[in-house]
Amino acid sequence: IALRYSVSNEIRTFLATGVLGGFTTFSAFSLDFAVLMERRDEGLAAVYLGASVGLSILALFAGLYVARTILQ
Predict the structure, then answer these.
(1) Which residues contact 33 (CB under 8 A, 6 or more apart)?
(2) Rounded distance, CA 2 to CA 4, Å?
(3) What is the pLDDT of residues 19-29, one digit of tens each?
(4) Mean pLDDT of 38-48
(5) Measured distance CA(57)–CA(8) in Å, rounded
(6) Quick check: 36 and 48 in contact, CB under 8 A?
(7) Residue 21 C-beta-side C-alpha neighbours within 13 Å
(8) What is the pLDDT of residue 2?
């Protein structure tokens, strides 16, 4: 697709690192959770799920705080 259409280097970089990187990260997270469930370790799976999502949201708000502080 990139060879057929004129795509800027910025768009290629975004697609390669941003979108695909996010996809592979989420795939690894999903696989880890599925493996824990298949092993019938529901307690650890629940902790893993909650901690992963919870810490991600906390990191998001920390990033927003830092960005807004810098931009003021």
Answers:
(1) 45, 48, 49
(2) 6
(3) 888 888 999 99
(4) 98
(5) 32
(6) yes
(7) 7
(8) 61
> Could you tell me the two tokens for 34?
């599925």
How many CA within 13 A on the CB side of residue 10?
Answer: 0
Q: Which of 50, 19, 54 is nearest to 33 (CA)?
A: 50
> In the prediction, which pLDDT does 1 show?
61
CA-to-CA separations, 3 to 6, 7, 12, 18, 52, in angstroms, rounded: 7, 8, 11, 20, 38
Distance CA(45)–CA(34), nearest Å, equals: 8
Q: How far, in Å, CA of 26 to CA of 23, rounded?
A: 5
Half-sphere exposure of residue 69: CA atoms within 13 angstroms, side-chain side: 6
Question: Model pTM?
Answer: 0.71
